[in-house]
Amino acid sequence: MIPRSFQYVAPKTLPEVVRTLRKYKGDAKLLAGGHSLVPLMKLRLSNPQVIVDMRHLRPKLAYIKSDGKEVRIGALTRHAEIEHSAELKRVLPIFPAAAEWIGDMQVRNMGTIGGSLAHADPASDWPVVALATDATLVAYSGRTRRIPAVKFFQGPFTTSLKYYEVLTEIAVPKPPPEHGWAWKKFERKAGDFATVNTAVFITPGRDGRIERASIAVGAVHTKPYRATESERMLAGKVPTIDLLRSAAEKAAEIAEPASDLRGSAEYKREMVKVFVRRALVEACERANLIRPQVAEVR
Ligand SMILES: Cc1cc2nc3c(=O)[nH]c(=O)nc-3n(C[C@H](O)[C@H](O)[C@H](O)COP(=O)(O)OP(=O)(O)OC[C@H]3O[C@@H](n4cnc5c(N)ncnc54)[C@H](O)[C@@H]3O)c2cc1C
C-alpha cells in the first residue's frame, strides 16, 4: 500500500527537531532508519501529518565512545556500525553479537539503535540488551533526561518518551573485563524477529561464585523483562548445571507469550527455559565459573 500524504521536513539541528515535534503535538514522527516507521506508514497503521527526518543529525548522533566508566552509543548509530565496532567487541561484546542477529544486511545498514529502542517492538533485540546491561537512555527536549532502561519500556510499542523528546544516546556501564555474557536469539527462519531472545551478564565473585547475574528476556511478554527472581537465586552461589536450569525455569514463569505463527504459548514458554539455560551456561563458561559443557547439557 501507499502511505497517506504527509509533509516532510529535515531540520539541521536538534533544537529545531524538538521545536517541530512540539509544534505538531504528536502528529509529527521522527524518521531515523525508517525500517519500522515506513512499513507501518505503508500499511497505514501510522499516519503522521509530518515526517521529521533526522538525516542531518547523523554527524552528531552516530558515534560509539568508550570513556570513563561508560560506553556511549549515539541514537543514530546503525546496527551495522555496532556489529563491526572493534571497541564494542573489546569492551561490550554482547552489543556486536546481538547486532549480527538483527534482520538482514539491508536492515542493519539502515536501522538505528535509537529507532529500535524508541519503537519498542516487544520482539525486537536492542531492548533486551539494554535491560540486561543496565543501560540508561538519554532523551533531549531542550533539557536532557536520563531514563534507566527498566523504566523506559512501558508496553507494546510504548515507551516513557514524551512526544517532544528525542532519544539521543544509550549509555552503558562498562562491565569488569572478567564478566561473562551471552546473547541467544531463537528465530523461526534467518532474519526473522525473535520467538524468544535473551541477554545474560554474569559478574564472577570469589571462590567460584556468581557475584551478580543479570537476565533479560524478550518476545514473550508485552514488554521485555528482567528475571529478577532468577537473578537472586544465582547471586552468591557456585553455579551448577542444576542451579542454572532452575534459574531458567524460574525466568519462564514470568513469560506470558501469545500463541501465533511463531508457536503456541506453551511452546514459547518451554523455549524460554531452553534459551535462558543455554545463555546462563555460556555466560558462566565465559566468566570461567564452569568448564565448557558438552552440547547435551547446553
Ligand atoms: C525486514 C525487517 C527485519 C527486521 N528484523 C529485525 C530483527 O530481527 N530484530 C530487531 O530488533 N529489529 C528488526 N527489524 C527492525 C529494525 O531493527 C528497525 O531498524 C528498528 O526497529 C527501527 O529503527 P529505525 O532507525 O529504522 O527507526 P524508524 O523506523 O525510523 O523509527 C521507528 C520509530 O522510532 C521513532 N524514533 C526513531 N528514532 C528516534 C529517536 N532518536 N528518538 C525518538 N524516537 C525515535 C520514530 O518516530 C518511529 O516511531 C527489522 C525490520 C525489517 C524491515
Summarize the structure.
The chain has 298 residues and is α+β, with helices and mostly antiparallel strands. The protein has 13 helices and 14 strands.
Describe this entry's structure for a reader:
The chain is α+β, with helices and mostly antiparallel strands and 298 residues long. It has three domains: 50 residues, Uridine Diphospho-n-acetylenolpyruvylglucosamine Reductase, domain 2, CATH 3.30.43; 116 residues, Uridine Diphospho-n-acetylenolpyruvylglucosamine Reductase, domain 3 (2-Layer Sandwich); 107 residues, CO dehydrogenase flavoprotein, C-terminal domain (Enolase-like, domain 1, 2-Layer Sandwich). It is 35% helix and 24% strand. The chain is built from 13 helices and 14 strands. Strands 4-5-10-6-7 form a five-stranded antiparallel β-sheet. Strand 6 and strand 7 form a beta hairpin. Helix 11 packs antiparallel against helix 12 and helix 12 crosses helix 13. The longest helix has 22 residues. It starts with 6 loop residues before the first strand and ends in a 12-residue tail after the last helix. It binds flavin-adenine dinucleotide (FAD). The site of flavin-adenine dinucleotide has 27 residues, from strand 2, helix 2, helix 8 and strand 10.
Q: What is the domain tally? A: 3
SSE string: EHEHEHEEHHHHHHEEHEEEEEEEHHH
Q: Mean pLDDT, nearest integer? A: 96
Number of strands: 14
* Gyration radius over CA: 19 Å
* Helix and strand composition category: alpha+beta
Give the fraction of residues assigned to helices: 25-40%
Counting H and I runs of at least 4 residues, what is the number of helices? 13
